[in-house]
Fold this sequence. Notes:
Residues 1-60 and 358-372 have low confidence and may be disordered. A hairpin with a 5-residue loop joins strand 1 (254-259) and strand 2. The strands form four sheets. A three-stranded antiparallel β-sheet has the order 3-4-5. The protein has a two-stranded antiparallel sheet with strand order 1-2. A two-stranded antiparallel ribbon has the order 6-7. Helix 7 packs across helix 8. The protein is mainly alpha-helical. Helices cover 49% and strands 8% of the residues. The protein has helices at 4-18, 32-37, 52-59, 62-65, 80-118, 128-131, 137-153, 157-172, 175-183, 188-197, 204-217, 223-237, 242-250, 273-291, 300-313, 346-355, 383-394, 435-443, and strands spanning 254-259, 265-270, 327-329, 336-338, 342-344, 412-415, 430-433, 447-450, 456-459. It contains 18 helices and nine strands.
Amino acid sequence: MFDRAEMTSGAESRLSADAPSRADDVSPVADPLVADAFEGHPFAADQPADDASDIWADECDESDWLDAELPPAEAVPVSAEIFLGWALDDAVATQVVLNMQAARQLFAITRAFRTARANPLIYVPAAAAERIPGVQDVDFAERSVAFDLAQRLKLSENMVRDLAYQGDVLDTSLPRLRALFVSGAISQAHVRAAVDACNGLPDDAATAAYDEKLAAVATSVPVGQFRSRCRRLRERLCAETLQERHDRAAKLRRVVVEPAEDGMAWLHAFAPLVDIVRADARLTATAQSMKHREGETRTRDQLKADALLAWLTGDGTPSAATAHPTVIVDDGGRFAELLGYGPIPPNAAARALRDAPAFRKVIADPIRPARLKLDTTRYRPTAEQRHWLTLRYGLDDAAAPYVAPGLTTGGEVDHVAEWQHGGTTDVDNLLPLKPRLHRLKSVTRIRLDPKPDGGIRVRTPTGYDSDPPPF
């Protein structure tokens, strides 16, 4: 039973123990900001004693918190230090609870993946492997459960897979860190750092040593420092040479475009460190040289960015890069949108139109002159249909997670009702899905259907429905 008198007495004891030399520590809260923050609190200095019981009854369920046999406790004046102590303790206790809940979710995701692997027919029809060459039931069951969880949790499929992998590693290889995580002593960020760094450990003995040494320090160091310790420990325990690991990682080199705000974007290159440093050194030297030109006002960072893009796009050369983006410009010319990526300023749109070999102006209805309905003997959509689909779904923010930015950049046209089952090649029955989702829909029981008012309705065989019917 919660004892208010004991709590207030403990608070006074704590105060005198923490700061015995300050006589004003037991005085009421004097700071106006602190007083305002705790106005009406049952322990506030200006709270009448007669009202304390009523306030406790309002803030808590009386049946759980109040003992009818105890007399009402009087309000006790407290200092800002006590209020601060309560806030700090509450923050720490809440973090423990959050860590425990994160562990519970992570292992639930892990169990979902294991169940799907053991029971692939939940997602994949029994005849799929016979009907579609190359289909592996377990593989598509994993893809399906990742997609299913991503829809429910509003996370990316890659993040869901990463969480499932972390749970597998904790269960099979890192029992000490697992126990700390489940108890709430370490965070999910600590777990991720440990799991990311443990790849390549040579044997079970090295893995056990890795788990033991990290568990001894995990609760006493912040995440950034813990991540560094994970990497250093792995280097000491790993039998595989750095060169071998580098050669394997280099096979994953790639370039990624990440749209940003205000018509900007990031261009990420994952490549060997030596080459990245060499490229940056050349950009820096070029920017320094350009900086000394007469009338140059750009900063070094601006010059480096401009030089990089000039080299990559080949501006002013016969081999300059060409592309066929779809640019939407509003009637007033106030803004434009690069379809599938986001808004761009009018000047950038003007340059795109100036450099385009051809463009079309869409006034209000781009589809009337085109033949958008075909008979069932035609499987492949026409160019006009593909153009209409690009416009229709490229401007639909609600469909963005499922459709490709454009049919010229990797999108695949899917027949909502399968063509081999009588579905027609009409725009009402076509959907420009991302390739992986096109494959997932074709192989599994997951459904992706366009909604009349925009967006995509997602249904999975486990009962998830992004747009359930009203009750």
